[in-house]
Amino acid sequence: MKEDTIVALATPPGIGAISVIRVSGTESIKLTDSIFSGKEKLANVEGYSLIYGKVVDDNKLLDDVLVSVFRGSNSYTGEDSVEISTHGSPFIVQRIIQLLINLGVRAAEPGEFTKRSFLNNKIDLAQAEAVADVIQSRTSASLRGARNQLDGLLSSKVAELREKLINISALLELELDFSEEDLEFINRDELDLKISEVLIEIEKLLKTYNFGRITRDGVNVAIVGEPNVGKSSILNYILKESRAIVSSIPGTTRDIIREDISIDGFLFRLYDTAGIRYS
What is the CATH number of domain 6-122? Predict the structure, then answer.
């Protein structure tokens, strides 16, 4: 797959100890070399190399950096890539990105590195979706589910079912091709059994959706009831902190208060609501 070279910040924006800038594309190593000064040229090092050097802006030192070099299919995107580890100054980050853009590198679109990984057959669509789930995981259960999908558990199961369906289809086509010969390549009962087995496996897979959605998105729990029956007290007890104001005066809670909590590895979103009044 032929693509232009792209660049983006790979770590969260803002001030921090370290920021990582990712560059990917056929010209990524060559163009990064244009702003990098080290003991050796990046173009001369092997993949999986980590090189210390400096980023130079108009012959002036901008920052000390570590550059990771990844070549071809051994990179995340399946194409030549570099990752520049800089000090976590937003000014330094933006200046380095601008230097690369001035050389013809394009600012990456959201998710474009993962898109390239998918288009270059490094990952399939299910794994591409799982990348975002891993990043956004907030509990052990959501991380475990996302990791299973990223590691290809879902993909391998779908591939297995697809293979079975292809074999069934091939047998049916063979029967049709030789229908006038009165030949039977597979017993009808055996064929029905194979189809039933596939349907059962698909049904099992579909039933995992609701559980998977809960592990990823969490469970919404609304605490409802009449005024002054202890709804806010229940919220505070679960959270083990005084998040909601508790008073003997009915109607103290007027707006919905939301808090997230992890229980046994699952995310629960708790909503403390105003009391229900009869009118």
Answer: 3.30.1360.120
